[in-house]
Design brief:
The complex is a heterodimer. Chain A contains no helices and 11 strands. Chain A is mainly β. Chain B is mainly β. In chain B, a hairpin with a 2-residue loop joins strand 7 and strand 8. Chain B is globular and about 35 Å long. The N and C termini of chain B lie far apart (35 Å). The interface between A and B is medium-sized, with 26 and 24 residues.
């Protein structure tokens, strides 16, 4: 059973960079069968897809966040990471790392981390 | 970009009631529509994929239907453990994914 676990600061100051890491266990990021994704849910709002990364380092980002997002992967540690620059209060959310299975064509998000709350505040 | 609109944003029903949640896409997405359930304090869980296919282990009281632009998630007999927020997600415009705004179901 694949498990994902987010880690990183829970509080980030405005204009700074939010950085999170996701550690994957129970499966290898390098298997090549999946995309590794970041998704967030702001308070009282819907889920928002941030983007995903393939084990080769190929990325796809949400157009609305593309200018501020960078994702990276470390296959040796079975981890992938998110950086979001120039954060504002609007970036306050629970951030989830997740696995996306594209094999069926329906790009289901089949495994999720428990989520980590990141608050942007001075 | 494809926009996903869910209605209602919240609802309250009684145990045993039939509950229906709607998700509308801003353009034709065929059956590239998945549904997720998120219980309070938990991560989302896949319920339905390809608009109408139930994920393994999901109770049969859940049913997804629809194609094109209009989709429905139904719960035939609401149970206390179904209290959650339900979200739709389109995968027609991959690699871009889009979620709906969510529907909060309460008893």
């Amino acid at each position: 059973q694949v498990q994902l676990q987010e880690s990183g600061p829970g509080l980030v100051k405005p204009s700074q960079t939010l950085s999170l890491t996701c550690t994957v266990s129970g499966g290898s990021i390098s298997s090549g069968d999946f995309y590794w994704s970041w998704i967030r849910r702001p308070p009282e709002k819907g889920l928002e897809w941030i983007g995903y990364i393939y084990y080769t380092g190929t990325t796809h980002y949400s157009p609305s966040l593309e200018s501020r997002v960078t994702m990276s992967v470390d296959t040796s540690k079975n981890q992938f990471s998110l950086s979001l620059s120039s954060v504002t209060a609007a970036d306050t959310a629970v951030y989830y790392c997740a696995r996306v299975d594209p094999s069926s064509g329906w790009y289901v998000v089949d495994f999720w981390g428990q989520g980590t709350l990141v608050t942007v505040s001075s | 970009d494809i926009q996903m609109t869910q209605s209602p944003s919240s609802l309250s029903a009684s145990v045993g009631d039939r509950v229906t949640i709607t998700c509308r896409a801003s353009q034709n997405i065929d059956t590239y529509l998945n549904w997720y359930q998120q219980k309070p304090g938990k991560a989302p869980k896949l319920l339905v994929y390809a608009a109408s296919s139930l994920q393994s282990g999901v109770p049969s009281r859940f049913r997804g239907s629809g194609s094109g632009t209009d989709f429905t998630l139904s719960i035939s007999s609401l149970q206390p453990e179904d209290v959650a927020t339900y979200s739709c997600q389109q995968s027609f415009s991959t690699p871009q994914l889009t979620f709906g705004g969510g529907t909060k179901v309460e008893i």
